[in-house]
Amino acid sequence: MKVRIGSQNPAKIQAAQEVFSGYEVEGMDASSNVSAQPTSDAETKKGAINRARNTYQEGDLGLGLEGGVMTIEGQLYLCNWGALMTDDQKILTASGARILLPEEFSAPLQGGLELGDIMDNYTERQDVRSKEGAIGVFTNDQVSRKEMFAHVIKLLYGQWEYSKKK
Ligand SMILES: O=P(O)(O)OP(=O)(O)OP(=O)(O)OC[C@H]1O[C@@H](n2cnc3c(O)ncnc32)[C@H](O)[C@@H]1O
Ligand SMILES: [Mg+2]
């Protein structure tokens, strides 16, 4: 049994390798069937589930991780979701950390830019999305994108283990 993860992003793949340490983890392109930049909690969750479904193959596990933004009481937050399709074809879900994003990000997001591109412009660096991520930048590197997704994957892995005990 291997873990098929619907992404080629190293931050996501390394997080999966950390948690599923005894398994082979294979990254691959998978459609999320939502916008490239989800803009609500529900859309981000749906993207994670679709990625898990679209990477799943019988006998293996399908893992989907999705980052998005959402508005709470007029404020823009980063949000994150994960989904695991298990060998008995159940879908487990878990959400990750949310942090406040700068107000000035709202206009470029509404204009169609993805958060990953906005982060590169903002930090004057390249490919922040594959490295520490917005969460690493705005937490002063206390929590990286890999670490945040590893926590989400632990929540999924633990639910899968628990379901096998019952
Ligand atoms: O290749 P995939 O797996 O799609 O990885 P991605 O970096 O594009 O990540 P997502 O599609 O899950 O996230 C949707 C968008 O939000 C951006 N994003 C989400 N969380 C981010 C973070 O912590 N830092 C930078 N960009 C982030 C991301 O780069 C995309 O533009
Ligand atoms: Mg993406």
TrEMBL record:
<feature type="region of interest" description="Disordered">
    <location>
        <begin position="30"/>
        <end position="50"/>
    </location>
</feature>
<keyword id="KW-0460">Magnesium</keyword>
<dbReference type="InterPro" id="IPR050299">
    <property type="entry name" value="YjjX_NTPase"/>
</dbReference>
<keyword id="KW-0547">Nucleotide-binding</keyword>
<keyword id="KW-0479">Metal-binding</keyword>
<keyword id="KW-0546">Nucleotide metabolism</keyword>
<dbReference type="InterPro" id="IPR026533">
    <property type="entry name" value="NTPase/PRRC1"/>
</dbReference>
<dbReference type="Pfam" id="PF01931">
    <property type="entry name" value="NTPase_I-T"/>
</dbReference>
<keyword id="KW-0378">Hydrolase</keyword>
<feature type="domain" description="Non-canonical purine NTP phosphatase/PRRC1">
    <location>
        <begin position="6"/>
        <end position="153"/>
    </location>
</feature>
<feature type="compositionally biased region" description="Polar residues">
    <location>
        <begin position="30"/>
        <end position="41"/>
    </location>
</feature>
<keyword id="KW-0464">Manganese</keyword>
<protein>
    <recommendedName>
        <fullName>inosine/xanthosine triphosphatase</fullName>
        <ecNumber>3.6.1.73</ecNumber>
    </recommendedName>
</protein>
<dbReference type="InterPro" id="IPR029001">
    <property type="entry name" value="ITPase-like_fam"/>
</dbReference>
